[in-house]
Amino acid sequence: MATVLEGTARALLRRVAIEQAEARMPSLVAMVLRDGRPVWFGARGTVEGAAPTTATQYRIGSITKSMVAVLVMRLRDEGLLDLNDPLGKHVSATPVGDVTIAQLLSHTGGLTAEPPGPWWERTPGVEIDALTGALDAQTARHRPGRRFHYSNLGFALLGELVARHRRTGWAEAVTEEILQPLGMCDTTTRPREPHARGYAVHPWADVLLPEPEHDAVAMAPAGQLWSSSTDLARWAAFISCGDEKVLRPATLAEMREPATVDDGDAWSGGFGLGLQLSRHRGRRLTGHGGSMPGFLAVVWADPADGSGVLCMANATSGLRASVATDLLDIMDTLEPPIPREWAPAPVDTGLLELTGPWYWGPAAYVLRLLPGHDVSLTPISGPGRSSRFAAQADGTWLGLDGYYAGETMRLVRRADGSVSHLDVNTFVFTRQPYDPSAPVPGGVEESGWR
C-alpha cells in the first residue's frame, strides 16, 4: 500500500477516531484510495479483542446490489436481454411483470421497498417461489417510472433473473464473473474468520446486543455479501477505473449516468443503474451504501481521478454519512492531487481541418480532437449543448453524452471537396455565423448582417 504524509495520516485517523467514539461504533475501519490504489487504512475499536485489520470481514449489505447490477449489464451486453424488457419476459409468475429491468436497476419501478412477511433482514430467508408467491397487488406502490422508490424486493427479482440466465445461483455468478477476475478472494456470502460480529448499541447506555445473521435466500441479492477492506478497495477501484475483464468501459459509464435524482434540479444525490451517485465539492462520486442489522458500510469512488473511500462498521445504526466524504476532503486539503503531465495524444491528424470554431446560428462552438478518431463539440463560452462524439465506421460520429447523446453528426463537403458544414441531427453548424453559402434551414437574409 502506498503511504500518505504523517500529518495526513494523523488527520485521517483522528476523523475515524472521532466517528468511532461519538457514534459509538464497536469497531470502524476506513480506507482511502488515490489513482485507484489504497494509500491509507485506519481502524478503531476491537473485533474479538483485537484491532481489525485490512483482512477483517464486515457485512456490506446493499453494496451487494451493485455487483448484481453488473451481472445484469453483462447479460445485456451479451444480447440476452434488453434493459427495456419487462421483468415478466425473464421471470414469470409475478404481479409486477410489466416493470422493466432498467426501472428495477434504478429503483424507479414503483415496487414496495420490502418483501411481504416479517423483517427479512433479521429472519431466515425463503426460496424464490415462496417469495414471488406472496406478492400481490400491493407489491406495486407507485406507477412504474414515476419516482425513485428504493426497493430491496426489486433486486431480489434481479438476482433471480441472473440465476435463470446463468443456470446457477446469483452468488456463484458474482464469484465467477466479478470477484475472481478482480481478485476479491475475501468476499463471501457468509462470514469467515476473521470477521466482525454485528451489534445493536443501546441508545441510552453503552451496552451491546448481538444481532442475528441468516442466509436471506431469495432476498440475498439485496444484501448478503461480506467483504474486507482490501477487497472493497478493489471494488472501489473497479467502479472508478473499470476493468474490461468484468465490464466494457462504455457499459460501466452507462451505469454511472444519473437515471433518477432525489433532490430536484440542483441534485446532490441520485441513482444510476445499480449505483448510487453523489455530488460533493466538485466531485461526482459513484458507489453504494450498505445497511444490515449489526453492520453499516459505504464505498465511494470518483471516476475523474480514481480517488475513493470506504468505511465499514459493526453497528446497526449511527454511522454518519459525512465520515466518508470528510476523509476525501482531508486528502484533498492536505495532499491535493497533482495533475497528470500533459503529453501529445494519438489523434487522427487528418481531422485537424475540422478543429476550431463552428457556429450554430450565432452561437459559437469549438470542435476539438479526442484520442483516436473521436471529437468533442462544446460552447466557446456561456451555456450551450456539449457532447463528445465517437467515430463510426461509415464516417459519421455518434453522440456519447449531453444533448446529442445517441444522435449522429455528419461532415458535409461541397462538390469540390471543401468543408461545407456539420449536420448534427438536422442542426447545421457552419464556419461563420449563418454562413450564406451553407444550406442553413430557413435560408439566410440576402442583405446579411447590419
- Helix share of residues? 10-25%
Annotation, overall tally of beta strands:
20
At the fourth level of CATH, the homologous superfamily of the largest domain is DD-peptidase/beta-lactamase superfamily
SSE-based structural type: alpha+beta
CATH architecture term of the largest domain: 3-Layer(aba) Sandwich
Provide a count of the helices: 9
What is the rounded distance between the termini? 66 Å
Question: Biggest β-sheet, characterized?
Answer: 8 strands, antiparallel
What's this, in brief?
The protein is of the alpha+beta class. It is built from nine helices and 20 strands.
Describe the structure.
With 450 residues, the protein is α+β, with helices and mostly antiparallel strands. The protein has two domains: 329 residues, DD-peptidase/beta-lactamase superfamily (Beta-lactamase), CATH 3.40.710.10; 82 residues, no CATH class. The protein contains nine helices and 20 strands. The strands form four sheets. Strands 2-1-12-11-10-9-8-7 form an eight-stranded antiparallel β-sheet, with helices on both faces. Strand 11 and strand 12 form a beta hairpin. Helix 1 packs antiparallel against helix 9, helix 2 crosses helix 5 and helix 2 crosses helix 6. The longest helix has 17 residues. The protein is globular. The relative contact order is 0.13. The model has no long low-confidence stretch (mean pLDDT 95). It comes from Sphaerisporangium flaviroseum. InterPro entries: AmpC-like, Beta-lactam-related, Beta-lactam/transpept-like, DUF7586.
